[in-house]
Request: fold
Amino acid sequence: MLSATAFNSLNISFPYFGGFPGRFLLPDMQEDALGELGQVLAAVHVMSDLWTAYGIAQFFCILMLIFRWVLRPCVCVCVR
Reply:
């Protein structure tokens, strides 16, 4: 960890120790940055919903194939 003299020699004007007011100063944020992040998160949310619907559709398709495979011999025996 750097000491206060090391920071002073670097001419750093920001606070260098924890608990000092303004210790975690953030740079000014661009106006559009948060809006772009919101658009990306909204697109991810829609993609997640579509992925869930696709999984449900696959489940029902496989379920119907299993029912067809299991019940088909029974239907053939009953028709004869």
Q: What stands out?
A: The chain has a mean pLDDT of 76. Residues 31-79 form the longest helix (49 residues). Helices lie at 4-9, 31-79. The radius of gyration is 31 Å.
